[in-house]
Structure formats: C-alpha cells, structure tokens
Specification:
Strands 2-1-3-4 form a four-stranded mixed beta sheet, with helices on both faces. The protein is an alpha/beta fold. 64% of the residues lie in helices and 6% in strands.
C-alpha cells in the first residue's frame, strides 16, 4: 500500500464531499430529524387511556375508587350510568376498556368489579389490566381491605427508574441512525464514480483496489463519528437520558461498528453501480434489519427460533445491546467484549466480499 497515493485519494474524496452538500445533510440533518421523531413520535408508554366507568353503587367506597382512577396519570375516565352506551363506544374504538362497579359494592364485604378490555391491541390490553389491578390494590390497602401482616413491599426499578420507554428507545435510535448513515454515505460513493465515468480513470492509475476502498472509507468514517457525537449530545442534554458508562468505550465501539456499516455500503454500490438503486437497497438492507431484528424495539427472545438465529448476522444487534448498556447500566465489559467480537467478524467478512467484488477492470 502506497502512503502518498492513499493520502491523495482521501484528499480527493474530501473535495468531493465539500462539493456535494448531500453528504453533510445525511450526516447532520438526518440524525436530528430521526432522533426527534423517535423521541417524540414513538413511545411504548401507555398513558391517557380512555376508560369507561359504570358505577351502579352510591356508596362512599365506590365514589372513592372512581376518584382513584380519575387521579391516575394512566387513564382518562369517561363515566356513565348506561353500560351499553360505553360498550358501543368501546366497539367504535372511542374508549379502550369498561369498568363496571357492582350495585352492592361496599356492602357486606361485596367488592365486585368487572373489567372489559378491548384486546385488539394485546400489549395495551395487558397494560390496562395491570394498571387497573394496581389502582384497585392501592385503594384496597388504603381502606384496610387487604391485611398485610405488617409486611411492606417496596418496589425499586433498576436502570430505568421513571419506567420510560424513551430511556431505551433513544440509545437504540442512535444505533439505527449510525447504521443508516454509515451504509447510505458509502453506498453512493462507487456508484457515483461509475455514473460519472471517473471509475475508469481510477482503474487506469497504479492504485490498488485496497487503496481505493480505504481512501473512500476514511473521510466518511470521520463524518459518521461526528454524527455519533451529535446524537450523543442530543440524547444526553436534550432528552436527559442518563449515561452511566464510559465515553471512551462508546466512541471506540462506535468506530468499530462503523466498519461493517461503511463497507456494507461500499459492497452495495459496487454491485449496483447506480446511485438511486444503491440508495434504495442501502435503506432496505440497513434500516429494516437494524429496526426490526436488533432488539432495539422488539425483544429477540420473543421471536421465532429461526429468526433469533438470523439476528446473529445483524451487526446492529450487538451495538444496540452495548449502547443501551452504556447509557442505562454502565460499563459491563463482558457484554462489550462479546459484542465487539461479533461486530469485527461480520465487518471482516463484508470487507473481504468488497475486495473480491471490486476488481480492477471494466466488465
């Protein structure tokens, strides 16, 4: 490898970046847009759930229980004496559940209530059931209807005290963004060279394909690391996501993770030789696997067995786990070591494929 030729190629690519502002838009505008969408538009927290309550009892116990539901941050209470009317509202998706309080509620140890839940969204239905059970249990304890035998249960939530989905969505979003940026930036590089006819000129020079590949990766690697810094600053200062790990480890693992992302983009552009096709394939090949199969949004353990095996070839799986650990738990080196090995192996395989596919010659 010739050092002077490599430096010249890097300078050439830097000039190309300054002349084409689209790369800078991808690096700095796209991450901000996606982070704000993920932070404000995507939420797994169940709040402001419309709950219909039919209270047939006029007892103080029943009125107090209804007030407990009104004071909850989870429910927006719609109270009505007509159960059928509330059932029609649930059928038309205007409310998500109906709670019926028996007319004998509070008399002679009768505390019957019935909960009817719209289960078209199973996860939400599960949340509603848990929230209702929790509120009823708190109300019962306050009224000494449950004997605790001097035993007090105190819940303590580790790593995510507010129980906010944003705490793990934002770190996971950083991985998805880095995957898209890394792949998309380099996916357009060689394809652009073929479209403009400059690839033939490069092949006529004494430079090797290894020098060409490295010369194109380095400038975009620097840009992508700048994007990682921007994402971290937004997550930490704007969203207030706690960071309990080491910044050095975050950026070191980010640098390692960018390797398979960047070379994947080069492989796509080498195969397609067309910027439009390369951009479309890079979005499908990078965004969808990182979003669906990395554990960022959906638990890998809940997937079919064959799909769990498939996730092992997705680099984002390893980086999502590491970034979420760094933000919420801290430095767990055993996790980082295993994930780093997985990322390096996948990156090395893709890099070899790029070199094999990128032969000096015109087909």
């Amino acid at each position: 490898m010739n050092k002077k030729r490599l430096i010249a190629l890097i300078k050439k690519e830097n000039l190309q970046i300054t002349r084409d502002p689209s790369a800078l838009l991808i690096v700095f505008i796209l991450p901000l847009l996606l982070l704000f969408l993920m932070g404000y538009a995507v939420s797994l927290d169940a709040k402001n759930i419309s709950l219909g309550i039919v209270s047939k009892s006029e007892s103080s116990y029943a009125r107090e229980l209804v007030e407990y539901f009104r004071g909850s941050k989870y429910f927006i209470v719609v109270e009505d004496k007509n159960k059928e009317l509330l059932m029609d509202k649930m059928q038309s998706n205007k409310i998500k559940a109906v709670l019926e309080i028996d007319d004998e509620f509070g008399r002679e140890n009768n505390y019957k209530i019935q909960l009817l839940v719209d289960a078209t969204e199973p996860n939400l239905a599960g949340f509603i059931q848990k929230y209702v059970n929790s509120i009823v249990s708190i109300w019962a304890q306050q009224n000494s209807l449950i004997t605790t035998h001097d035993t007090k249960i105190e819940s303590r939530y580790w790593f995510n005290p507010p129980i906010s989905s944003r705490y793990f969505l934002i770190p996971g979003s950083i991985v998805v963004i880095m995957t898209m940026i890394g792949t998309l930036l380099t996916a357009l590089v060689i394809a652009r060279e073929w479209e403009k006819g400059t690839m033939e000129a490069l092949m006529a020079t004494p430079t090797s394909m290894l020098e060409i590949v490295i010369g194109k990766i380095v400038p975009y690697f620097v840009l992508a690391m700048g994007s990682l810094l921007l994402c971290f600053l937004v997550a930490y200062f704007w969203y207030g996501i706690p960071f309990r790990g080491s910044l050095l480890i975050l950026f070191l693992m980010g640098a390692i993770y960018l390797f398979p992302a960047l070379v994947s983009g080069l492989l796509i552009s080498t195969v397609t030789k067309n910027q439009f096709v390369a951009a479309q394939i890079s979005l499908v090949a990078s965004f969808l696997p990182a979003f669906l199969l990395s554990g960022f949004l959906f638990e890998i353990e809940n997937m079919p067995q064959w799909l769990q095996v498939l996730t092992h070839i997705i680099p984002a799986r390893y980086f999502v786990n590491s970034v979420q650990t760094l933000f919420l738990a801290g430095n767990v080196y055993s996790i980082f070591l295993i994930n780093t090995i997985g990322i390096i192996i996948i990156g090395a395989i893709v890099f070899v494929l790029v070199l094999l596919k990128s032969k000096k010659g015109i087909e």
